[in-house]
Design goal:
By secondary structure, the protein is of the alpha+beta class. The protein contains four helices and seven strands; from the N terminus they run E-H-H-E-E-E-H-E-H-E-E. Helix content is about 35%, strand content about 35%. The longest helix has 24 residues.
């Protein structure tokens, strides 16, 4: 297994992964994945090409050219918000679950965030019903800092979400 950035040449495999994530877990798929699905198989290549300029990096788990897991981190371009990266879109194909793929992706994302001088924390949103996800993030040191009622409407119902954060380094200025 190799963890590397997902690039435009991976668009077809990446789009397949995103379609399956929406089919399996519509209640977990947020705005950024919806944008990718709306772009379609052809448009997702352009999105992947432009992500770096937008402050987004997508990590993929690969065997050869076969992509079987992904997660993304996004930063807002504003200097006021660049100190945080938002984790989204984690998905592993079912046949690869339980083999350490999610852990390897998370370790790569955390290592990348630690290397960025401005980033002090990674935040994420996880539905209240996703107990396995919450437990997974807690194992990496993420802590809950808030709850949003009716955060997401998917598959015909509302879902509440928890907000979690992992501090990757101490802030330089804390006023």
């Amino acid at each position: 297994m190799i963890i590397r950035n997902v690039v435009a040449n991976d668009a077809a495999n990446y789009f397949k992964l995103r379609v399956q994530s929406e089919e399996e877990f519509p209640q977990f798929v947020g705005l950024s994945v919806e944008r990718e699905l709306a772009a379609g198989r052809e448009g997702v290549s352009s999105l992947l090409s432009g992500y770096s300029a937008e402050g987004t990096i997508v990590f993929g788990a690969f065997e050869g050219e076969q992509l079987f897991g992904a997660l993304a981190l996004s930063r807002k371009p504003s200097a006021k918000y660049r100190h945080k990266a938002f984790l989204w879109g984690m998905y592993i194909f079912p046949e690869y679950r339980g083999a350490g793929v999610a852990q390897a992706l998370m370790q790569a994302a955390i290592a990348w965030a630690e290397e960025q001088p401005e980033i002090i924390a990674i935040t994420l949103q996880v539905t209240l019903s996703n107990i396995r996800g919450q437990q997974f993030y807690k194992r990496f040191g993420f802590t809950i800092f808030g709850t949003e009622r009716r955060s997401l409407f998917a598959a015909g119902r509302f879902y509440d979400a928890l907000y979690m954060e992992l501090e990757v380094k101490a802030p330089q200025h804390d006023h």
